[in-house]
Amino acid sequence: MAIVLSTPGVDELPAAVGALREWQNDTAPMHLHPGDVGWFWRYGAEAAAAAVRTWSHDGRILAAGLLDGPSLLRMTTAPGARRDEELARQLAGDLTRPGRGVLPEGKASVEAPQDALLQELLADAGWGLDEPWQPLRRDLTEPVEDPGVRVEVVGPERADERAAMQRGAFDGSTFTAERWHAMAGGAPYADARCLIAYDDRGEAVGALTVWSAGPGRPGLLEPVGVHRDHRRRGYGRAITVAAAAALRELGSSSAIVCTPSSNVGAVAAYRSAGFQDLPEVHDRLRAA
User: Fold this and answer.
1) How many C-beta neighbours within 10 Å does residue 62 have?
2) 6 - beta bridge partners?
């Protein structure tokens, strides 16, 4: 079959996001979520479209990826296509040949489902494994407990506060109110919520964004952060519980999150909030 690699225009981007929504289910391994594209949308619709790649046959998207930086492609495939040999060989060829417009020469990384045939083809081509990441999931069948802190949903009038919390939680963050508005204007944010948590004195202590993929599908926490001035006080657990509750209200079947395995504090916070470990995952890494 003829598989077409393309970069969607802004008007075609919702179709790629829609495909990612359809591919989410609780039995699948951790893989690219529409919320990942939604978070990238903070750079604007044009930048988000330019960072997306799709592989299609007869107009049907079979695989989609997000260039989350110049040399990292985060990608996934339709559930029934992960072991399709023709698609996997097309993907491997497009990812290993710099002239295809996906990845540059030299050092590059690919995040793909761990059960995808693409993993084996990249290994055969000499790609190694990068540092481990720890995905975690919480089932949302049952009601979620009270987080123990006041949590409020962020609207446009509080974009400045949300942006300030992001910068306070992540060193080097360039998130601004303008970027929040760009993100909130994107198609994925229709099923998303930004939350801010407050301590007993009314001071903001942490913030996060949750992304639903639709009722009955897993929702994503991305990003999650406690302000550097308020760490080691249990707020990581509190805002993670609040995130799970927000996703349950949106109809999500489960809540998923992923963090570097080396980030032991974040892993501990997620576990304390009722999230259970999934198998560790690795990006495929091509050395320089």
Assistant:
1) 22
2) 54
- CB 174: neighbour CB atoms within 10 A? 11
CATH number at residue 116: 3.40.630.30
Kindly state whether residues 241 and 176 are assigned to the same domain: yes
pLDDT digits (tens, 9 = 90+) for 5-60: 999 999 999 999 999 999 999 998 889 999 999 999 999 999 999 999 999 999 99
**CA–centroid distance for 159 within its chain:** 21
The CB-side HSE value for 76 (13 A sphere, CA atoms) comes to: 23
* 107, 132, 157 - which closes a domain: 132
How far apart (Å, rounded) are the C-alpha atoms in residues 131 and 284?
A: 9
Q: Is 158 left (phi over 0), alpha (psi -120 to 50) or beta?
A: alpha
pTM over 0.90: yes
CB 121 within 8 A of CB 89: yes
Strand partners, 101: none
By three-state DSSP, how is residue 14 classified? helix
The answer to whether residues 205 and 149 touch, using CB atoms and an 8 Å cutoff, is yes
Last-in-domain residue among 106, 132, 158: 132
Residues found in the chain: 288
